[in-house]
Write a structure and sequence with these properties.
- The N terminus is likely disordered.
- The longest helix is centred in the C-terminal third of the chain and has 16 residues.
- Helix content is 27%, strand content 14%.
- It starts with a strand and ends in a 7-residue tail after the last helix.
- The strands form 3 sheets. The protein has a 7-stranded antiparallel sheet with strand order 2-9-8-7-6-10-5.
- It has 2 domains: 224 residues, no CATH class; 182 residues, no CATH class.
- The protein is elongated.
- The protein is α+β, with helices and mostly antiparallel strands and 424 residues long.
- α1 packs antiparallel against α2.
Length: 424
């Protein structure tokens, strides 16, 4: 199956010095020569703008007319408290400030044109606020809110999360996963240092949020529409979320799957991505039910392909053991049921929502299912996947306790991978 798809892909993969980021405590990079914008985003225009920031030239000025750029290279101490700088938005409005606050706004303005300032819309053209007054930072909170590359985060000591002058800290998030987050900051040591910082969630909260009596005042980030426009609607084959690409070419091998079947495109897509295979060379078994081990295996394969991390699933013992270990790294529960037990639709939703990175989600209107109580442990997962067009239901019902068929799993996986297959 060959087709050309016009969609935007935003990638939050980090490859610094060909090594994975360590989130054990804190680590810092103060040499911009070791960084590349394309390691954080696959949109060329954004990668180039980020390279400019790394080189020490964000849109931060020494004068109110915004004519003289202020250098701020990584490793320099160019943003100390008390030194006033100026930033200009796309609307022409000029904002002033000091320290981390104005540096983060300058970086954001360089990337996306807007100036988040106090976290209120005002003159924004390309941005939206996705978080307000959060007590602490976590992977769950960020992924649920859909926090993405380039988001500006501001902390404050106010109990209501409101902005409070120069108290607090401002950063620009470049990447996060279940282990921690990586971000740019000015005045990183309280003495003006510009650096890239990687911290575990616990350390970040201890150093920058709850440990200092702060709250997250707001997180502002570019809208999906603006990011899509920056991608230039590039038309290319194999254009999927993350690093997902077609590895195989479906050749009509599954004789038990009619080409006209409602699930055919889903099976073909998931097969070509190398995420799902048949029961044999010529048999897919679309009506057979999925076991817990099979569902978790697909989640692991999807995540590994999404980040193109080259993870080897070879191992000894049970065939599913390496996949279980990989899922655990991402905070996906593997002990909720026997591996050979049938997986329900609710259980799969709870697993797959954690396997779908925040930047691969969309924010449409979630469907309302009569058989999904608001207090159910899987309700939030169903809501997120429904809002992303991945869960459609059946006549207003989700059927949470029903076992899942292989055909349904393939379709769900294909829609996670390819936005063009999702429901509007």
């Amino acid at each position: 199956m060959k087709k050309r798809i016009m969609i935007f892909t935003l990638i939050l993969a980090l490859a610094l010095a060909s090594a994975a980021t360590s989130y054990a405590g804190s680590s810092y990079i103060t040499d911009g020569k070791s960084l590349r914008g394309r390691d954080f985003t696959d949109i060329p225009v954004l990668a180039e703008r980020l390279d400019r920031v790394f080189a020490g030239a964000p849109d931060m000025y020494l004068d109110a007319r915004c004519q003289s750029l202020a250098p701020a290279e990584l490793g320099s101490r160019e943003v100390p408290l008390g030194r006033t700088y100026y930033v200009k938005s796309q609307t022409g409005s000029v904002y002033s400030g000091t320290s981390c606050y104005i540096y983060a706004n300058a970086v954001y303005a360089t990337l996306f044109g807007d100036v988040p300032y106090h976290g209120e819309p005002g003159t924004w053209k390309n941005s939206e606020r996705v978080v307000k007054n959060l007590s602490s930072a976590s992977y769950s909170a960020f992924s649920s809110a859909g926090v993405c590359f380039g988001a500006l985060l501001r902390t404050t000591p106010n109990s209501d999360g409101s902005y409070n002058g120069n108290s607090g800290h401002s950063i620009v998030i470049l990447k996060y996963d279940s282990s921690g987050l990586t971000y740019l900051e000015g005045n990183g040591d309280g003495k003006g240092l510009v650096r890239l910082t990687a911290r575990s969630w616990d350390t970040f909260n201890s150093v920058s949020v709850s440990g200092r009596g702060y709250r997250i005042s707001f997180i502002v980030q570019p809208t999906w529409e603006y990011l899509s426009s920056l991608s230039g609607e590039r038309e290319r084959e194999n254009d999927f979320v993350g690093y997902l690409t077609r590895r195989l070419d479906y050749d009509g091998r599954f004789r038990d799957m009619p080409a006209s079947a409602w699930y055919a495109v889903g099976v073909e897509t998931a097969y070509e991505l190398g995420i799902i295979g048949g029961r044999s060379v010529s048999k897919f078994a679309p009506e057979e039910y999925v076991t817990v081990a099979e569902g978790l295996t697909l989640a692991a394969r999807f995540l590994s392909s999404y980040y193109d991390d080259g993870y080897s699933f070879a191992g000894t013992g049970a065939w599913y053991a390496p996949y279980y270990e990989y899922c655990k790294k991402w905070g996906i529960d593997t002990g909720f049921k026997s591996p050979n037990a049938l997986m329900t639709r609710a259980e799969l939703a709870a697993v797959m929502v954690k396997a779908l990175p925040a930047e691969a989600r969309t924010s449409g209107a979630a469907l309302s299912f009569r058989d999904v109580p608001s207090g159910a442990p899987y309700a939030r997962a169903v809501e997120v996947l429904s809002a992303s067009g991945i869960i459609r239901g059946d006549g207003g019902l989700f059927r949470p306790d029903a076992p899942l068929k292989r055909s349904e799993l393939a379709v769900m996986t294909a829609m996670m991978a390819d936005r063009s297959l999702r429901a509007d």
